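OP here, attaching both records as promised.
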Amino acid sequence: MMSKTAFIFPGQGAQYCGMGKDFYDTFDTARKVYELAQKATGLDVAELCFTENDRLNITEYTQIAMLTTEVAILKVLQEKGFRADCCAGLSLGEYGALAAAEVMELQDLFRLIRSRGIYMQEAYPVGGAMTAVLGLDAQIIAGVCDSVDGIVSIANDNCPGQIVITGEERAVQEAAEKLTEAGARKCVPLKVSGPFHSKLLAGAGEKLAAELREVEVNDPVIPYYCNVEAAPVTERSVVKELLAKQVCGTVRWRESVERMIADGTDTFIEIGPGRTLTGFLRKIDRNVTVRNVETVADMEKLQEEMQEKM
């Protein structure tokens, strides 16, 4: 089987003030992405990303900031000749994968992610929680969640030994206590502003579905592996339904990566702030090559590695 390269994109939680600034300062291509995001949303996204502010960690702003940064880096990488055979993204990062797969126009993508952030923020503003459960497998966690009175379920299956649960605050706390009794190494409450990827966000999914109806989508130029089904998407006919479901569905990241590897992917390039996905990849399969491009220096190092291989 021929070796394949995947572009992968992180989700919320990796953001920080100053992310992407060296790309913005160095490349006209990156600057144009920030300008397009501002034009599409009416927000000064460069200011949001580069100046100290309290908004960057609020979902409705985090999502557009992260996506713009990821797309800016992606566009520079593509300009430098980097290519991928497939792509995927964690939660919000799936929209970075949509950009890589050229599923829709960038201005539509920026408008959508801005709306998605607002809908998710408004859907369940108080009383929700998320907790990372370390050291238990998904089957046990799902069983415990089912035994709790209240709404709690798996939000993210990130990698072996790290699963995130989501739902009503009281139900999440009760589940965490039961999971500790069941042998979890640790249960860590996450600093989030809502119970993301929970059915409590069904209203946000419905609003996003309505907005998606107005957007034109294309067949992906490369397959993107969707969170909801952990399977490659190759046709436009399913894109809108999957994106609407993704808001309150489980992010099946571990399974997505395992499927990509089974399909011949052996090199993964994480595009965007942080190294979250790089860490997950190393726990999923240590035999694959993982690189991350967060800064211009990271990209230059990757270019050197590629030239050495040629």
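Record two, same layout:
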Amino acid sequence: MAVSNNWLNLRSFLRKSYNREVNEWFRDISNEIPGNATARQQAKRACLILPNDSQNLASMKMECFRYVVQQSHKKPNIFGLPVGRAQAQRKYKPQVFFFFLQDSDQADPDKSPFDGQISFRLMDETSETITMAKLNSMANRVKSEFGGSTEFIWNKGKDLASYTDIPKGYAFRLLVRNKTDAKQIITKVLRVNTDSPNWNKLRYSEADSPTGAFPTSKGNLNILGKLIKEPIQRPICSVRFQYAYCNIWGKQEPVILYDRSFKYFDALAQ
């Protein structure tokens, strides 16, 4: 049966747009069609739409990328309030969030990938004074510091680094492996806010026996007749920068500053 012109057009479009997304996700592998020498090359080949792929095969590859590789269906349950109700209870300064996520091929297949989040408040702004010009400038700084071809990886560990400067909107509590990593993360976040660190504000602590205080693996819990792995406190893992956004009081949806995860399509910095 002859291939329809509609499918030829759609396949051409997907190979330009969707394949670009796959290449971005597997940016450590060249943009040429990979072989199966490594598990990561095999995963990329399983996701790329090739010149002669059928409609069914292309659909299967896209589902493989979304659900097996990106695991987009694994959204953690959040304890909180709907945005409208929370905003009615408390007014707040604009807040900038940075979200990090463990690579799917590094995550435990029986659990959601580990994540990380850092945030600060814009203490010199309100919902009515902040401008799109300021948000656009901030978005470009996020891309410069955390994105591009060398997107940032946060190596989380069992040490705790605290950086507090309330008048400037900073109250960071970062799990890291060493003080050098902590300073690097803090420096990058503050650069987004056109600021520089005052290391007198940094407090660093580590347990005498980190693996004893915070075991890397725990036992199972019997919940409703099923064995569930007990949550791990302070896991050792690497989480990759995904996106940054700004929450503004009175606005229901966040302003997406920069997104390398392709979860959002309206980020200010591309």
